[in-house]
Amino acid sequence: MATLTHIFEKTYSKPEILALINKDKFIPVLIKALWVYQTHDEKLQRITKHTNGRGFTHVDGEFMSSLHNFYLKAGFLTPKQIKAARKVLPKYATQLSNILSGKFFVKDLVHTL
Predict the structure, then answer these.
(1) What's the Rg (C-alpha) of the chain?
(2) Are 42 and 55 in contact (CB under 8 A)?
(3) According to the 3-state scheme, what is the secondary structure of the chain?
(4) Which contacts (CB < 8 Å, 24+ apart) does range 102-108 have?
(5) Where are the domains of the chain?
């Protein structure tokens, strides 16, 4: 599986992020990159409570957190889960571009609350 360290080796544009979303092996990595930006209480409750421009939106928080947690336990996502994630992830292309290109990091989250 690809890792965040592996992905951080270059700067990614929005179109490149959209191309990564079409590759199954990157889906869990992209979900994790967003999940990292959920606040501590959001991670514990598996929902999105804060409007801070980081992590999942309130609409996707529960579902995307469930995919992240499933992947952690099982070590894979099912084809159905990958297909569903692929439909959701494009709305996060700009945020993922910023994350994977090193334009903001977890410490930035503290300043948005």
Answers:
(1) 13
(2) yes
(3) CCCHHHHCCCCCCHHHHHHHHCCHHHHHHHHHHHHCCCCHHHHHHCCCCCCCCCCCCCCCHHHHHHHHHHHHHHCCCCHHHHHHHHHHHHHHHHHHHHHHCCCCCHHHHHCCC
(4) 102/8, 102/11, 104/54, 106/36, 106/37, 108/54
(5) 27-110
Total count of residues recorded for the chain: 113
Give the pair of three-digit tokens for residue 16.
Answer: 């490149």
Q: What confidence tens digit (pLDDT) does each residue in 60-93 have?
A: 888 999 999 999 999 999 999 999 999 999 999 9
| Model pLDDT for residues 1-46, shown as the tens digit of each residue | 555 444 556 788 899 999 999 999 999 999 998 988 876 656 666 6
